[in-house]
Amino acid sequence: xxxxxxxxxxxxxxxxxxxxxxxxAVAIAGGQVALAKAIGLKQGHIWWWxxxxxxxxxxxxxxxxEATGVSKHDLRPDIFGPDPNRADLQPNPILExxxxxx
Length: 102
Prior knowledge:
There is one protein chain. 70% of the residues lie in helices and 0% in strands. It is built from seven helices and no strands. Helix 1 (3-29) packs across helix 2 and helix 2 (32-39) packs across helix 3 (43-53).
């Protein structure tokens, strides 16, 4: 796999993680309506995130984490970085060196 392919793969994995984490938060809360109420929104916002943006809005990530226990690092790794407690989500030092060398 080339460096560009690995980068695209990692972007795809990050997108999948964001959506799966949001889906997990919805399930833990007891559904879209329950999550929306817990964070002070209407159900339509949750639906939009799940079906259109495929990620939680950055301004609500901390509220979702507090309401459901789903990590902000999983909900928005692009903003909060990888979860320091999950070794499988840590940056790959080999890829980082390759990017610097290129």
